[in-house]
Amino acid sequence: MKYYDQISDGYDELHREEQLRKLSVIKTNLSIDRSAVLLDVGCGTGFAQEIFDCEYVGFDPSFELLKKAKKAGGRVFQAIAEQIPLKDNSIDISICVSVLHHIKDLDKALNEIKRVTRKIIVFSLFKKSKCFGEIRNKVGSYFKVDKIINDDKDLILFAR
Ligand SMILES: C[S@@+](CC[C@H](N)C(=O)[O-])C[C@H]1O[C@@H](n2cnc3c(N)ncnc32)[C@H](O)[C@@H]1O
What we know:
Shape: globular
CATH architecture: 3-Layer(aba) Sandwich
Helix content: 25-40%
Number of domains: 1
Distance between the termini: 35 Å
Strand order of the largest sheet: 3-2-1-4-5-7-6
CATH superfamily: Vaccinia Virus protein VP39
Bound molecules: S-adenosylmethionine
Order of helices and strands: HHEEHEEHEHEE
CATH class: Alpha Beta
Strand content: 25-35%
Radius of gyration: 14 Å
Largest sheet: 7 strands, mixed
Number of strands: 7
Number of helices: 5
């Protein structure tokens, strides 16, 4: 069993409060239409849907985390960011919160996120991750970063 499947029962207790705070910072800095479609890349237990007032879709590789996201009523599916089963430009806004440092093939994932997203992509990057520098540079090479927020443990990038 993979790490996130194993810790699924305690995930919200461990991370929910901190992640909801980051998501609120993200929301405050975005202007989102109610009719917009938002994709939550690596959605975990899917609590981001409580924050955003628009159409929500999420995916994650962890079956056990997804079970919880489904129970919370989320439109979620199992996938990895390296291979997103969605059409080109089918998403208005993607968020990718505390996920990129877990991804094996960053180039593939960034290409896929770019392919499916029409407008804005928000990356929240864990500053203490070993590969933070590499990830930050890669995001800068794939996207135009319009805004950066230095938020406690994360650097939040608003890109397109
Ligand atoms: C720290 S959790 C963050 C979850 C959620 N975004 C949140 O804010 O609570 C990292 C998530 O990345 C997911 N993940 C790991 N590898 C992934 C991949 N290749 N593509 C998409 N998500 C992945 C994990 O299953 C886990 O749910």
